[in-house]
Amino acid sequence: MTLGLVIGNKNYSSWSMRPWVLMRQLGIPFDERKLRLDFSEGSPFRTELARVSPAGRVPVLVLDDGQAVWDTLAIVETLHEHFPDHGVWPADRSARARARSLCAEMHGGFDALRTHCPMNIEAVLPDAGARVWAELPALRHDVARIESMWADALQASGGPMLFGAFSAADAFFAPVCLRLRGYALPVADTTAAYAQRVVQTAGVAAWIADALTEHDFIVEDEPYRSHR
Predict the structure, then answer these.
(1) Structurally, how many domains does the chain consist of?
(2) Is the pTM of this model over 0.85?
């Protein structure tokens, strides 16, 4: 099976990061197609993406028969169907249900963290992080909930990843790990240690390395800087 994965800029696109990292880490082969993020009307991003997905968003998984699968949760479930022995989800039924719940909560929530700490791998923004942390109770609530989720999962599994081995759950929270680091948000030592383990996995490290070579600056994704 030959899979294709259409993604956006690695420095900014947290949604693209999730399936890319998961597939890379679990050894699921795929061909990457990267499009520069630009949602303006008639942009090459919109034009090219419209050819593979009616949703007009990245990421998009393209199957070997040309069928497109969009939305990260749908992509993960499709990967699980096609590669059931690769560890996309935990093998244990109870753990698998919990992992799906965590991913769904990440997928649909944490608006304050997403809005005020957008993923920006190249940037180091501790001053911006300190400011929004002090000003926004909703952000502090988001991070507290994430810390609780991670702590419960790690205690139940024994680690080192949320459900023992690396799975979709870790891929879904990988951008959060980078946000905590880039904005220097204050978290417990156990939270920081888990985030560091995720960052050091081969799949995440490869994504970061690629992001740092882009040397692109997209104004719409840079609320805290006017230039690199």
Answers:
(1) 2
(2) yes
